[in-house]
Recover the amino acids of this structure.
């Protein structure tokens, strides 16, 4: 479903060229739940931007569901994002002025969006927020906000769910819930989920961990037995804080 | 994305910062209200002026004698005594001058008019019975000069309303006696007030007498040919459209009568010309007022642009989110252009209302001592609305383009 072939990406910071990806080849199939891990500066954000069609590679090719998207215009990319990809962000990225419902409706405003209200309500139900539809983000807890974010990502029935540090701003209980929701979506509905994270606990709950370093994939291994809940190491850390 | 959704998005964005939206709106409101009320005043003044001139009759030509030349030095217009009463009557000829309905020659002089212990110095016009219709005079009492008065050189007078008031107060002057330049005249009528004018010239401050009486009893000019000299011939035309044809007809008759081969010894002006000239002048005046108000509208537009630029910067993250969710450049562009246009149109609408209220309040009020009339016209309201919408589009498009061109990743990263 995701086929990356020798992808490179270089950013220009003023006069200095910063190589972010230096030839990444990667293949993720339908229904997989994958974690991309790596220290900051390892290129995992760039990788995720390219997988999410927010950016195009300098060279190499990216085929998403049989469609080469590595040379598309901004507007064509926007269309792909709208149809195929659901984004979940570390900082939720909800519009604070809008209600949960209106936030979830957002992707439906662009592109084909019939039955906006019904579909948004369904999505909110799937993440267990049916009783909070008219609340605005500031009135919701972090975990609830992230669930609105997931509902928004789900509302167009995307092929791919892309989560960038989805639990980075959450306490362990909420993190547990959020990762649980992602796992359920993957297991029960066969959604392809890619999670960018630097927390080993979360990586341990996926089926496959891809490690990046210095713009290259340095490790790609299957997780033998994905955890059902967050491990004890995380709780020990929380205790120390 | 359809228009309705765009509208809803734009409205909710504006609603989220009501004070700012309101203040931005105010700039446009003031601009549009200024345009509308100033144009209303301008048009009111224009109409007042035009009406005053039209009250003199629009379908008139004035024929005046030319200039005298003595030793190469030209005198003032009308100084030559070349136009006679016979010339005037010759202009009413169904064959040569079919456009002419009526001619009304006049001569004028000044005189001391005395009644009992009151007196006034005013202009005395020697006129014919046709004068009443040609110059559009109505009588408030009595009657006008009759043809018989002309034949007899009768010493009868029709008083202007101001003269009547000065000499007789509220009494009816008809049947009373006045002395003009020591000659006794019977008052046979009083003209209805025309209003307007000023202290140097008023249509109400005049006395009309038969033209023959004026010539033989009050003035003392004689022509070489022995006829009665006239100073102006008022020519009433069948309709206003044929002014040019009428001028040609009148000129031809006079040239034949005066055996002119080279330079005319008379001049012809039309009332229509006077009105048109005045209208051109007042149009400039109205436009000038509008332009001044237009500047404030422009300033309002710049205010919109300023706020939209701030808004784009402030909402960079929102733009990033929308783009990540699949918004295309066009969607973002429309959203911001819509916001700007809504601001300016809303301001325009409120401005039209405010302008309407202002011009209604000013209507009939005295402005610098002159009663002012204001005319609120729909065309200006529509124009002002259109212009304010255009201003929103024009000043909104640049910020909107900046928003549309933001890269989603950078926009999402923006703090």
């Amino acid at each position: 479903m995701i086929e990356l072939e020798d992808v490179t990406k270089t950013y220009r910071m003023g006069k200095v060229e910063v190589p972010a990806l230096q030839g990444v080849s990667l293949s993720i199939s339908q229904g997989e739940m994958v974690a991309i891990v790596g220290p900051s500066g390892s290129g995992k954000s760039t990788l995720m931007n390219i997988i999410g069609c927010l950016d195009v590679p300098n060279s190499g090719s990216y085929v998403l569901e049989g469609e080469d998207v590595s040379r598309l215009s901004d507007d064509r990319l926007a269309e792909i994002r709208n149809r195929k990809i659901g984004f979940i962000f570390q900082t939720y990225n909800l519009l604070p002025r809008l209600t949960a419902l209106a936030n979830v409706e957002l992707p439906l405003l662009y592109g084909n969006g019939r039955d906006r209200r019904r579909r948004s309500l369904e999505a909110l139900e799937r993440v267990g927020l049916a009783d909070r539809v008219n609340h605005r983000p500031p009135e919701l807890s972090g975990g609830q906000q992230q669930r609105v974010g997931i509902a928004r990502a789900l509302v167009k029935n995307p092929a791919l769910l892309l989560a960038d540090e989805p639990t980075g701003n959450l306490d362990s209980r909420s993190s547990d819930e959020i990762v649980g929701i992602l796992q359920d979506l993957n297991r029960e509905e066969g959604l392809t989920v890619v999670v960018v994270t630097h927390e080993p606990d979360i990586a341990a709950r996926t089926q496959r961990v891809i490690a990046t370093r210095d713009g290259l994939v340095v490790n790609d291994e299957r997780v033998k037995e994905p955890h059902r809940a967050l491990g004890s190491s995380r709780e020990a850390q929380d205790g120390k804080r | 994305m359809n228009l309705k959704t765009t509208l809803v998005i734009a409205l909710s964005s504006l609603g989220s910062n009501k004070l700012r939206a309101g203040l931005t709106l105010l700039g446009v409101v003031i601009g549009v209200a200024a345009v509308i009320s100033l144009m209303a005043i301008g048009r009111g003044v224009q109409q007042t002026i035009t009406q005053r001139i039209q009250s003199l009759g629009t379908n008139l030509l004035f024929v005046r004698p030319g200039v005298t030349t003595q030793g190469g030095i030209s005198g003032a217009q009308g100084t030559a005594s070349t136009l006679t009463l016979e010339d005037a009557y010759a202009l009413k000829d169904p064959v040569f001058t079919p456009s002419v309905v009526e001619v009304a020659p006049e001569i004028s002089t000044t005189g001391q008019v005395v009644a009992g212990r009151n007196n006034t110095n005013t202009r005395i016009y020697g006129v014919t019975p046709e004068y009443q219709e040609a110059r559009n005079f109505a009588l408030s009492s009595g009657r006008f000069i009759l043809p018989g008065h002309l034949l007899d050189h009768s010493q009868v007078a029709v008083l202007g309303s101001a003269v009547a008031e000065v000499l007789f107060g509220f009494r009816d002057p008809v049947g009373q006696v006045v002395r003009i330049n020591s000659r006794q005249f019977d008052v046979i009528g009083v003209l209805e007030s025309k209003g307007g004018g000023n202290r140097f010239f008023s249509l109400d401050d005049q006395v009309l007498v038969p033209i023959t009486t004026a010539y033989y009893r009050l003035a003392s000019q004689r022509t070489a040919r022995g006829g009665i000299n006239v100073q102006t011939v008022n020519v009433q035309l069948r309709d206003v459209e044929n002014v040019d044809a009428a001028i040609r007809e009148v000129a031809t008759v006079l040239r034949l009568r005066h055996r002119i081969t080279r330079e005319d010894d008379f001049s012809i002006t039309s009332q229509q010309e006077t009105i048109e000239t005045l209208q051109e002048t007042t149009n400039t005046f109205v436009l000038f007022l509008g332009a001044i108000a237009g500047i404030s509208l422009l300033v309002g537009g710049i205010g919109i642009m300023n706020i939209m630029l701030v808004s784009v910067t402030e909402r960079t993250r929102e733009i990033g989110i929308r783009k990540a969710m699949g918004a295309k450049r066009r969607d973002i562009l429309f959203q911001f252009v819509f916001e700007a246009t809504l601001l300016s149109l809303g301001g325009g609408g409120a401005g039209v209302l405010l302008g309407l209220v202002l011009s209604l309040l000013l209507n009939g009020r005295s402005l610098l001592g002159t009663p002012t009339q204001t005319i609120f016209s729909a065309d200006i309201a529509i124009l002002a609305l259109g212009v304010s919408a255009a201003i929103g589009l024009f000043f909104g498009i640049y910020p909107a383009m900046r928003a549309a061109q933001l890269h989603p990743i950078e926009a999402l990263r923006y703090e």
About this structure: The domain at 31-42+82-240 of chain A is CATH 3.40.50.300 (Rossmann fold). The longest strand of chain A covers residues 16-28.
